[in-house]
Amino acid sequence: MKLIHAILSVIFVIIITSCDNPKKSSNTKEISDFDYNGTIKEVIQTSNYTYCFVTDDNNEHWIAISKADLKPGQTLYFNQGLEMIDFHSKELDRTFPSVFFVQKASTEPNSMSKLMPETTKPVKPEIVKYNSNVEKAKDGISIAELYSNIKKYDGNVVKIRGKVTKFNGGILGKNWIHIQDGTDYDGNFDLTVTTLESVNVDAVVTFEGTIATDKDFGAGYTYSVIMEQAVIIQ
After folding, report:
1. d(CA 161, CA 204)
2. What pLDDT was estimated at residue 217?
3. Buried b vs exposed e over 142-152: b needs ≥16 C-beta within 10 Å?
4. What residues contact 8, with CB distance under 8 A and at least 6 apart?
5. N or C: which terminus of the chain carries fewer CB neighbours within 10 A?
6. Which of 185, 166, 186 is nearest to 176 (CA)?
7. Is 198 exposed, middle or buried (0-12, 13-18, 19+ CB in 10 A)?
8. If the chain, 234 residues long, is cut into consecutive pieces of 10 residues, what is the mean pLDDT of each piece?
């Protein structure tokens, strides 16, 4: 089995994550649609993810996929994932020295049609609309303006001021923040922001970042509109 070293860029230009990929079996003879495989030794279930401790040819690593019915002893076939070092699961209150977040996995080696359904199903967070009345940033736009003209702003850097309604830190190497400013366009009132900045829920901040559309980061993170590489400005 060969050790493959890859530098994975997860869309965000400002974050480059170096990782050692899971190992590819050197004695796998069948033609497989997946790059790696191993025997599941341990399974930990959470509300959204299934963590599998996979071993193969004296190598071992933790794999995280969207929630699926797996059991120890099964062979898991999977594609390249994003390695997170010292990843802390709040739900488990456990820190994994290394865990690979994998988007595609199956117990079948050579049939993508037999993928476990949950492995590609996005995990949609519950979005609650709050009473916010936030003044628009100078030279900025509102959330309603963004959604009303997505094509105009796609790929461009914009400023949006809003109230932080949700904060999830340390996921895929960055912080995921939801903001609202009280505006609404066709039922769209919430914007997801990814950043290295840390903020408190209920804080009113101005983010400047790049707007992107139809982004699928794997591991359940799929967004029609998102602000990336965001920084807080005065």
Report:
1. 7
2. 72
3. bbbbbbeeeee
4. 17, 18, 19, 80, 82, 83
5. C
6. 166
7. exposed
8. 33 30 42 75 88 87 86 88 78 86 80 43 65 93 97 96 89 85 96 91 94 80 89 87
Beta bridge pairs of residue 95: 88
Can you list the alpha helix ranges (DSSP code H) found in the chain? 143-148, 150-153
User: How many whole angstroms separate alpha carbon 180 and alpha carbon 182?
Assistant: 6
92-94-95 Cα angle (round to 5):
140
Structure tokens at 52: 């599998």
Gap between the Cα atoms of 181 and 189, Å rounded: 8
- Residue 116 CA to residue 113 CA, distance in Å, equals 9
Domains of the chain: 5-120 (2.40.50), 143-233 (2.40.50.140)
Question: E strand or H helix at 119, and its extent?
Answer: none
* 8 A C-beta contact, residue 104 and residue 37: no
Q: Which two tokens stand for residue 97?
A: 């020295």
CA–CA distance, 185 with 197 (Å, rounded to integer): 27
- Between CA 112 and CA 108 the distance in angstroms is 8
Residue indicated by tokens 């933790």: 62
Q: Within 10 Å of residue 88's Cβ, how many Cβ atoms?
A: 12
Count of residues for the chain? 234
Q: Return the residue matching tokens 């400013």.
A: 181
